[in-house]
Design brief:
Layout: H1 5-25, H2 38-60, H3 69-94
Helix pairs in contact: 1-2, 1-3
Amino acid sequence: MKFTPQDFLMGFFLMNAMPHLLFGLIRLRFLSLFGFSDRGNLLYALVNILIALFIYHSQYDIATLLDDGLMIGALTILGVYAITGRFFVRLFQENS
């Protein structure tokens, strides 16, 4: 596997979505392109995911996404955090 700038940017934008998604879900103030709000962070996470997918599509064609284990794994983790993030924050905040 060779290193390409497009692959780097896909990983950069996809993983940059993670903290913004988490901070948006748990409503912590965190600076994003759209300010400090939780909605701004969620929107910025979505923008980062869409940019990563756009770069993937332009580099490899979106039809090959299901054959790329790395991208599927990263998108799965983002999805799991999006679905379960608030639940686990509430669960662990009650126990501390």
